[in-house]
Amino acid sequence: MMRTILISGASRGIGRAIAERMLADGHRLSLGLRDPKCLIGSSLDPAIAGSEQVFLHPYEAQDVNAAESWVSASLAHFSGFDSLIHCAGIFHRTPIRFNDNQQHEIDQLWQVNVMGPWMLSRAAWSQLECHAEARIIVLVSMSGKRSKGRLAGYTVSKFALMGLCQTMRNEGWEQGIRVTAICPGWVNTDMAARVKSLPKEAMTQPDDIASLSSNLLQLPNSCVPFELSMNCTHEI
């Protein structure tokens, strides 16, 4: 089944890997990016992949008007879409006892990690309801399931995102919208660049998450998992 998919955060990391895999699978892609020029010359460049397969549009998760603009442009380009993959997200090491200079980090984590997916899902919802087997995939994190260490700001935002996923699942169930929250531990991306306790090759790889996402889009409504959790280290 060929799908038309909106993917946020496709310029690098997990989002980039998912977009490349979805294109290889034959799906049509609308990619929301802070800077669409960053994909020029890549396999995701419409000049290379074909404008009938890939559409690029500016998207900034902190901009309250960005979601509506991107959704409207995607509808105009493809005449519809049936899937939404949220990959845009940020990471800050904001602790409980944050200093005054870190207040903005909490606001940014909330705006990008929670309100970004919320506003985009809201803008796309009426279109997703038009399809009997629509899909929403959200890159959450193991930090949306448990708290380790002192990452208060990031963990709070991811717990909230998991709650949003559960409620979207409830809201869309009767219309055939299936939601999956993907919850990895450390993934070998720029976000994990400062992690020294674990070799990069021992981390979960972006291409592996892309493969899981590809499989999710092929499953019938009757067996789509709500949550996929994976961890590259053993946790008790």
From TrEMBL:
Is-annotated flag, keyword Oxidoreductase? Answer: yes
Q: Which GO terms describe its molecular function?
A: oxidoreductase activity
Coiled-coil intervals: none
The yes or no answer to whether the keyword NADP is present is yes
Q: Which Pfam families match?
A: adh_short
Keywords from UniProt, A to Z, are: NADP, Oxidoreductase
Q: Record's InterPro entries?
A: NAD(P)-bd_dom_sf, Sc_DH/Rdtase_CS, SDR_fam
Q: Which family does it belong to?
A: Belongs to the short-chain dehydrogenases/reductases (SDR) family.
Task: Tell me the protein's name.
Answer: Putative agropine synthesis reductase
